[in-house]
Amino acid sequence: MIKEEITITNSAGLHARPAASLVKLASNYKSDFFIHMQGYTVNGKSILGVMTLAAEQGAKLELQVDGPDEEEALKAIKDLFERGFDED
Amino acid sequence: MPFGAHPPIPKKEKISVAYLVQKLRERVHIDLQACASEEQCENSYVTEADLHRPGLALAGYIKTFTYQRIQVIGNTESEYLEHLSEDERKKAFSNLTQFDIPVIITTDHNELDPELQEMAQKAGIPLFKTNIETTKFMFLLRDFLEDQFAMQTMVHGTMVDVYGIGILIAGKSGIGKSEVALDLVERGHRLVADDVIILTCKGNNLIGAATEMNKHFMEIRGLGIIDIMSMFGIRAIRYQKRLEVVLELSLWDESKDIERTGLDKDQMDILDVEVPLVHLPITPGKNITVIAEVIAMNHLLSHYGYDAAQAFQDKVKTNIAKKQRKEADMPRRAIEYFEGDTE
User: Fold this and answer.
1) Are B112 and B236 members of one domain?
2) What is the pLDDT of residues B37-48, one digit of tens each?
3) 3-state class of B56 per DSSP?
4) Which of A16, A41, A45 sits opposite B7 (nearest CB)?
5) What is the pLDDT of residues B191-241, one digit of tens each?
6) How many domains does chain B have?
7) Per DSSP, what are the bridge partners of residue A61?
């Protein structure tokens, strides 16, 4: 299991479209993917779950990936966050 | 664990007295009348679910006075204050007002004397009165506060009320939890929440509810997000339901040991509450919806005292004993005489 903290960079925050890209990407990997935010935990492969967080720009999230392809998955997910979900 | 990590989510640290009074009036239907310091309600906070009756503090023993709790003045305290002279009464009450008490409530038609109300006003302690009998009031208030400060956790799954049994469908993403729930809704059962469920520990029970955000939306893969309440109406949803069974869906794995008799019941622990757990491997042609209904009915049957697995086991045992005593042979046809069914 690996964990990493990231910050939301895109101005609109984690709304429907970024959430969809995130969930789609995470679902390509076998590993379980959880997101922790302010003590709340949601499944990162569930679109309603991710949107429930309603994470705004600047919000800090902890990504937790656990499974056979965790390194690869975390790298791809982090990359997506860093690109601001290709939004701005 | 069927839904991965489920650590408790941060609890409420405090609720304002204004919020408490408003909710007690609206949701618990308690008639509370303000007597003093109503304007302080926004700035006074209740931080714990316990209540206190300040009899000893009034009598002067304040060493272990739990002043941070809600103070309830019932008949005993009122009569004690009443039997004192005015000066003594003021002195007794000052034992309370010297502390930073969140709120004082008098119950059972009791009311503090005007001079004591004035003292509460001066000290900035909100004072309320209610006509409800003390024990009943304390029970209702405790119940409300316990809920406000209860342990909660967020889990991934879909919760449906099936024949009055709260079933939480768990399993990996994409296994078809929402689809099963949709099918159950179509058959007349009620959705509690999809994808994100908040479980609250109340007494020895867990109560499931949606979040403000996801009520009562659902995601169906390939379709996107749908709104169950707009689509199926009020009969298709529930705001809260006690969790009674966790149904874990998994892909069929031959190596896995699957329960066959139903004699050994699995349990899982959520916030220190034990909940029955059913593992269900998915195979082609298996109708999970119907199985979910059967799980609910089986739970109801065992709740009302009939356990099918146990009943069958008892039958087998009786027969083995009979055979040992040579009173029975191999099992025969269940009917004595077959009449035929020609038309």
Assistant:
1) no
2) 999 999 999 999
3) helix
4) A41
5) 999 999 999 998 899 999 999 989 999 999 889 999 999 999 999 999 999
6) 2
7) A6
